Amino acid sequence: MLYTLYEMQRAAFMPLRAGASLQAQFWKSPLNPFATTEFGRSAAAAADVFESITRQYGKPEWGKMETQIAGVAVPVEVVAEATETWCSLLHFKRDSKALTKARAAEKRIAADPDPKMLIVAPLSGHYATLLRSTVTAFLPTHDVYITDWADARMVPLSMGDFNLDDYAATLRRMIGAVGPASNVVAVCQPGPIVLAVVALMSEDNDPNLPRTMTFMGSPIDARQSPTQANRLAETRDMAWFEN
């Protein structure tokens, strides 16, 4: 229902977006004598803002990637190692020949593998490609994976709900697909879920238990350095949030 209303709203805004785009072009045109005035710049900026906030942004592609190791260019191929309804596990597979050459330049044993790194991207309306710079930073020293979560509006209702338990179970399967002795980095929102999943894996003596956990900006304990959203939560009861 919510996604249907969202699509209806988007369709209703299409003519307004087109008008705003034309308005921005008009006020920015070098042929417009008012383009450089304060009013002209304000009108163009207002049109740009309206067009931007009503635009539907598509999912960016990872595109062609490579990394530099010991001065050697190593091509990187993005491979889906596991694919589920709600999540895909992407592997940034470095070219084996170039990697061997780079390790020789570093005077490393060719058979000595780099540690595995699983980056858990947020499940909060953002695409995993927003973490491209994080992936790029780890590629020279790690065998990198990332969780690529599905856009919920692209999943049919027939596939059922995706609740917190499903989230945890999916994440545990992704950690298992990466394999034992991996390193997990949770970026922002998934931090508490990663902590809970790894705790369960430890309790179960799971052979795929990660070697390390790292949390980047994750709200593990919102009482420490609370944000404005945390302060708001303290002023409302559960009934308010349910409503």
Describe the protein's topology:
Blueprint: H1 2-28, H2 38-53, E1 65-69, E2 72-83, E3 87-94, H3 96-105, E4 116-120, H4 132-138, E5 143-149, H5 164-178, E6 183-187, H6 191-203, E7 212-216, H7 228-234, H8 238-242
Parallel strand pairs: 4-5, 4-6, 6-7
Antiparallel strand pairs: 1-2, 2-3, 3-5
Helix pairs in contact: 1-2, 5-6
Could you describe the 3D structure shown?
The chain has 243 residues and is of the alpha/beta class. The chain has 8 helices and 7 strands; from the N terminus they run ααβββαβαβαβαβαα. It has helices spanning 2-28, 38-53, 96-105, 132-138, 164-178, 191-203, 228-234, 238-242; strands at 65-69, 72-83, 87-94, 116-120, 143-149, 183-187, 212-216. It has a 7-stranded mixed β-sheet, with helices on both faces. β6, α6 and β7 form a beta-alpha-beta unit. α1 runs antiparallel to α2 and α5 (164-178) packs across α6. It starts with a helix and ends with a helix.
Main attributes of the structure:
7-stranded mixed beta sheet; single chain; globular; 8 helices; 243 residues; alpha/beta; 7 strands
Strand content: 15-25%
Largest sheet, strands/sense/barrel:
7 strands, mixed
Helical fraction equals 40-55%
Question: What is the CA-CA span between the terminal residues?
Answer: 17 Å
- Helix-and-strand structural type: alpha/beta
Q: Numbering strands along the chain, what is their spatial order in the largest sheet?
A: 1-2-3-5-4-6-7
Q: Give the overall pLDDT as a whole number.
A: 88
Number of DSSP strands?
7
- Poorly predicted regions: none
Radius of gyration: 23 Å
Count of helical stretches: 8
Net shape: globular
Q: How do the SSEs run, as a string of H and E? A: HHEEEHEHEHEHEHH
